[in-house]
Specification:
The chain is an alpha+beta fold. The two termini are about 20 Å apart.
């Protein structure tokens, strides 16, 4: 991995029923300790949603891969992982991302090595251009009286959601032969 780019670790835990309060305390503790590590940019906690996912997802960001690795291999984190084991049903799942490669995973299939960056860029460009042509005029017309900042925020928010959940999975499946060809 390129050690000069920001890096994200997506950590998934499935909490044992009745242990949620202890898990919430665990999150507070590990997050407080992570603050002391070089390059730590923050963490976001995604809690389970009824009928959507039973998992807690922790998205941790560091400035570099080396700094993330220092945190992941630290005795501090190992101690916290020992503390969480009685609270979770199975070992944690960790996925490390350095860019847009999460958009290029095929659903239901084991992860591939990420496609070459120029292929990622071309496919994202295609998705953004298509959405801009279709979505831009609709949002502009619907929100014509709104301040420009709000129009842009709403337009880009809708675009990112559509890219993440619909457009990029569709384009990844459609172009998988080209994307993952060496």
């Amino acid at each position: 991995m390129d050690s000069s780019v920001h890096v994200t670790a997506v950590i998934t835990h499935r909490v044992r029923p009745g242990r949620e309060a202890g898990y919430e305390e665990w999150i507070k503790g590990i997050a407080a300790d992570a603050l002391g590590f070089n390059g730590y940019l923050g963490a976001h906690i995604l809690r389970p949603e009824l009928g959507v996912s039973p998992d807690h997802v922790i998205v941790v960001q560091f400035e570099t891969c080396q700094q993330l690795d220092s945190w992941m291999q630290s005795q501090t984190r190992r101690d916290w992982i020992e503390r969480v084991k009685p609270l979770i049903r199975e070992p944690e799942s960790i996925k490390v991302l350095t860019g847009l490669e999460s958009w290029f995973q095929l659903p239901g299939q084991p992860p591939h090595a990420p496609p070459k960056r120029y292929k990622q860029a071309l496919l994202v460009w295609l998705g953004v251009a298509g959405l801009s042509l279709l979505l831009g005029p609709l949002v502009a017309a619907a929100l014509a009286s709104w301040p420009q900042v709000l129009r842009v925020l709403i337009n880009t928010g809708i675009m990112v959601a559509l890219l993440t959940y619909l457009v990029m999975p569709f384009l990844t499946r459609r172009f998988k032969g080209w994307l993952f060809k060496a």
